[in-house]
Amino acid sequence: DTAVSQTPKYLVTQMGNDKSIKCEQNLGHDTMYWYKQDSKKFLKIMFSYNNKELIINETVPNRFSPKSPDKAHLNLHINSLELGDSAVYFCASSQVAGRLETNEKLFFGSGTQLSVL
Amino acid sequence: RKEVEQDPGPFNVPEGATVAFNCTYSNSASQSFFWYRQDCRKEPKLLMSVYSSGNEDGRFTAQLNRASQYISLLIRDSKLSDSATYLCVVSRGGYNKLIFGAGTRLAVHP
């Protein structure tokens, strides 16, 4: 069983479209994240939810809206897609929300390659 | 200045070599430190946490120097399967806010 699964794996779309990426974790973790990895390979946090509550919201355009219907799911909806949104988006989960313990770790999904044409 | 800086490499080494990666971080309030490994077109996976006293896991040794804000990873007896990108990761404050470096690419050849 895949611990953190995200769909779709590849997403090719035109500029201006609206698209969603879904993520589910079966680890029983309380916290889920969305990360973006651009062409320069920098992995940057976008959002984090703890038990359906938004706890991290980095400087991300309003076109990006996360939604967490329950603690096992965190979806990412993107409106009016732009060329610069092309990247790999990774969902992740972890058990601890407050202070990160040194033996805690993030479990990542396999990524969604988004290409905006 | 980037919050976490790494030499991008690539480091091209023969099998059996010892290789060391360095990483510096700018936020002195950072509390937790990790090395993640990312294979090409795959998700990052935790390699090891980094403790103040230094720690070892098989062929891998991690060191932390808080005064210099410097982290290192040493890989001994390199294997072909060690070829990957190694990401230095630092926590910033609470709520698991992990800051990733851009990674150092390692290529181990026969």
What does the model show?
The complex is a heterodimer of chains A (117) and B (110). With 117 residues, chain A is mainly β. Chain A is built from no helices and eleven strands. In chain A, strands 2, 4, 5, 6, 9, 10 and 11 form a seven-stranded mixed β-sheet that branches. A four-stranded antiparallel β-sheet of chain A has the order 1-3-8-7, with no helix packed on it. Chain A is globular and about 35 Å long. The model of chain A has no long low-confidence stretch (mean pLDDT 89). With 110 residues, chain B is mainly β. Chain B is 0% helix and 54% strand. In chain B, the strands form two sheets. In chain B, strands 2, 4, 5, 9, 10 and 11 form a six-stranded mixed β-sheet that branches. In chain B, strands 1-3-8-7-6 form a five-stranded antiparallel β-sheet, with no helix packed on it. The mean pLDDT of chain B is 92. Chain B is built from no helices and eleven strands. Chains A and B meet through strand 4 and strand 5 of A and strand 5, strand 9 and strand 10 of B.
Task: Report the mean per-residue pLDDT of chain B as an integer.
Answer: 92
Low-confidence stretches of chain B: none
Overall pLDDT of chain A = 89
Indicate the proportion of strand residues of chain A. over 45%
Range of helix content of chain B: under 10%
* Overall geometry of chain A: globular
Distance between the termini of chain A: 34 Å
Oligomeric state: heterodimer
